[in-house]
Specification:
This protein has 3 helices and no strands. The protein is an all-alpha fold. 24% of the residues are buried. α1 runs antiparallel to α3. The protein has a domain of 43 residues.
Length: 62
Protein backbone atom coordinates (compact mmCIF):
# COMPACT_ATOMS: atom_id res chain seq x y z
CA UNK A 1 0.00 0.00 0.00
CA UNK A 2 1.93 3.08 -1.17
CA UNK A 3 1.55 6.43 0.56
CA UNK A 4 -0.94 8.90 -0.90
CA UNK A 5 0.98 12.03 0.20
CA UNK A 6 4.44 13.21 1.19
CA UNK A 7 3.38 13.76 4.80
CA UNK A 8 1.98 10.22 5.06
CA UNK A 9 5.24 8.90 3.64
CA UNK A 10 7.32 10.86 6.18
CA UNK A 11 5.18 9.57 9.04
CA UNK A 12 5.62 6.00 7.82
CA UNK A 13 9.39 6.52 7.65
CA UNK A 14 9.49 7.78 11.23
CA UNK A 15 7.35 4.86 12.42
CA UNK A 16 9.60 2.42 10.58
CA UNK A 17 12.71 3.91 12.23
CA UNK A 18 11.10 3.50 15.65
CA UNK A 19 10.03 -0.07 14.92
CA UNK A 20 13.62 -0.89 13.93
CA UNK A 21 14.98 0.76 17.08
CA UNK A 22 16.80 3.62 15.33
CA UNK A 23 14.80 6.24 17.23
CA UNK A 24 12.88 6.07 20.49
CA UNK A 25 9.14 5.40 20.28
CA UNK A 26 8.62 8.33 22.65
CA UNK A 27 9.98 10.67 19.93
CA UNK A 28 7.11 9.85 17.56
CA UNK A 29 4.35 12.43 17.09
CA UNK A 30 0.96 12.44 15.42
CA UNK A 31 0.09 9.77 12.89
CA UNK A 32 3.45 8.01 13.12
CA UNK A 33 2.58 6.86 16.65
CA UNK A 34 -0.49 4.97 15.48
CA UNK A 35 1.28 3.66 12.40
CA UNK A 36 4.08 2.18 14.49
CA UNK A 37 1.59 0.32 16.67
CA UNK A 38 -0.81 -0.91 14.00
CA UNK A 39 1.37 -1.69 10.96
CA UNK A 40 4.00 -4.34 10.32
CA UNK A 41 7.58 -3.47 9.39
CA UNK A 42 6.90 -4.68 5.83
CA UNK A 43 3.81 -2.46 5.46
CA UNK A 44 5.70 0.57 6.79
CA UNK A 45 8.61 -0.10 4.44
CA UNK A 46 6.27 -0.30 1.43
CA UNK A 47 4.58 2.96 2.41
CA UNK A 48 7.79 4.85 3.15
CA UNK A 49 9.79 3.68 0.13
CA UNK A 50 7.46 4.82 -2.68
CA UNK A 51 8.56 7.69 -4.93
CA UNK A 52 7.65 11.17 -3.68
CA UNK A 53 7.67 12.92 -7.03
CA UNK A 54 4.18 14.02 -8.02
CA UNK A 55 2.57 13.38 -4.63
CA UNK A 56 0.72 16.21 -2.87
CA UNK A 57 2.10 17.46 0.45
CA UNK A 58 -1.11 16.39 2.22
CA UNK A 59 -3.79 13.92 1.10
CA UNK A 60 -7.29 15.25 0.56
CA UNK A 61 -9.87 14.13 3.13
CA UNK A 62 -12.70 12.03 1.75
Amino acid sequence: MPAKSKSQQKAAGAALAAKRGKIKKSELKGASTGMEKSMSEKELHEMASAKRKGKPEHAAHR
